[in-house]
Amino acid sequence: MSTEAGLPLWDLEGFWEPIFASPGRRYELFTEAQASPKGDALLLRGEEGAQAHLVASSPRPWLVRVTIFLEKEPPWTSPMIARQVPSLPIPWQENNQGWEASAHGLKVRLASAPLALDLATAHGDQVWGWKPWERSLVGATALPLGISWDAEGRPSLFLSWGLEPNERLLGLGEQFGPLERRGRRYVLWCRDPKGALSPVTYLPIPLLLSSRGYGLFLHHPAPSVWELGEPFHHAASLMVASSYLDLWFILGSTPAQILARYTWLTGRAPLIPLWALGTWFSRCMYRDRAQVQGIVERLRDLGIPGDVIHLDPLWLEGRAQRPLDGCHFRWNQEAFGKPAEFVSWLSERGFKLCLWENPYIWQGTELFQEGWKRGYLVATKGGNPAPSLDNPEATPVDFFNRDGARWWQDQHRPYLKAGVAAFKADYGEGLPKDCITADGREGLEVHNLYPLLYQQAVFQAVKEGRGEGVIFARSGYAGCQRYPVHWTGDPPSTWEGMAASLRAGLSLSLSGLAWWSHDIGGFWNPDGLKPPPKELYIRWAQFGLLSPIARFHGIRGREPWYYGDDAVAIVRRFVRLRYRLLPYLWALAHEAKARGLPVARPLLLEFPSDKTSWRVDWEFLLGPYILVVPVMHPGGRATIYLPPGVWHHWWTGERLVGPQWREERVPLAQMPIYVRDDSILPLAPVMDYVGQRSWSPLTLQLRVTSQARFRFWTPREATVVEATRYDDLYHLALSPTRRLLRIHLVGMTAIDVNVEGAHRATITQGRRGTVITLRGSGVPIKIRAKGAPISR
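Above: the chain sequence. Below: its structure as tokens.
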């Protein structure tokens, strides 16, 4: 197989072959086990003499770690892990079936003949593991546990386990296909796929979620291959290109609980700045200050809210004369004037500035000479500057060198001091596999770890410079959720590209990332440099403006006036809806920080017992309450699944009962949106940018049949609202506040209302329900309302 430029699929040629059917590999099963003198480890021997060590520990009742290593035991800590949870090894005991190590009501078992691992409860019920029937008439199909060598003698460890007939698998980071992982094989190798539709992805995460109640986290940066019911339908296999395996089993009753525990271990998203929830406008590429100023003025004239302007690489001096991207941090003053003046002009109009970067320094520049002289750049084995995989004329910064990482952070500080609010940490997938990093490791082993350290450096620089942190990153690996935000790369401007962006985002939600975004309108058009079709652009904008982070971006203009007056009106309507939802999004940001839950949720996270919800990957929940169904087909065709419960149509107020399927032709000006019953939805007034005005009055929309509770945050206080309904009698309780509130009892005409703890309560009746307007007095508020449903 030949390697061609532009085909990252072939970076790891041997890894794309089936694990147990690679003609260039040699395989050896482990067949014997013997306890160490202390009994805290097992010595494994292979059928041809290979040796390895097996250690098990359980730092928490729901967390089990199993390591298999040829020589040195892997460390507990790494950049992927956010907290130290060391635990003493569990002693092994031999029995008639093999060996077992018990702790916290769980058993790690190593069966004999052949050696195979599993995890079971104290009663012997298997949670995960190899099954005896994973064999054909002539032997095992998926080999249970062993070692493999490639043609150059480099080792890889592998293991296999059984899959239940109805078991569903999720996770593994950004993937552009269906959410269901079973029936496919995956190579986790961080790389630019050149189009966001291939099996190569920018942001793989070695975390697998199972409907059986376990998460399997591979704590390892090396490339890994996951065969999940493929080629053997009843089994899964994992191979890592390394001399050790480090597996963490995370147990939980639901996928949401497993994710919460995974992010407890690997870290959760910090609270991003409130303005980052506004709309971002970008293009590949804004050419100069005059063009940007014209766009900003037109957005304000048209009443389209926005908070961030992003500049792609043309802000760098000389970039227009270079064929490929690199970075040197020299400002293009000829095109954009002085940085501080430009930032000040934007700030006066309510916009923040974000600047592009990548971690590859153009060779021959002053920054390159300085970095190479100080030893801050990655070298080849021969001691020369290593070319990045994305640009042979640029060399990656060595973030494995702490001084080098701080030096890279220093390049940001003048711009942060001038008022730049964020950096787009682009690329990061291009560390060559044959380079040597500052800590002496080869690129093959740490390639996947590189974007994590890159983003850590940039995020920390922004946070130190501004007191708040947010970046916009493309690549990543386990732990990158600590440095938000990430976007799903460069999709084509097609219906398939939009669907791939949604699935990639939901895959990230199931892999520990709370925040993700995508290029509204798609990045590039397979038909050349044409803009996306008008209908596709509008549908993508509707989807994007109810995504966790909303950014317009692509080759050519993505501002709505390029697509007609009706596009302007529809985009303005959805941008304003997003800004009304700011208090709700801000509450979800606090929840992501506290609990590790994603902002955009596949249905199964909220409805784990509903089997259909596990199959639906073309719609999602924005937080717990809002069901979003992007229109993914031309002509407005939409297949809608409403999960169990009562749902309220956002546009019409119609009350619907799930589970049910609906086939609709959706008008271009709308997108199917449903609000869950027993919900409290906080809404802000319309504004042009975050901070333009206070959230006053703050509207609380109540759709309550039995009871609901919601905690939301304003920039100055937290408020808890509890609502209970008995037939047509409402009881509401609010924590102390002095805020001006509008309590909207959706779908209800109030007859008798009693308010305690508030000033100047007024009541108005409308077509959509009753509105109680009041100002808090700093003490708890109680409301009793009796009424009747509005007849439709």
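Residues 1-6 have pLDDT under 50 and may be disordered.
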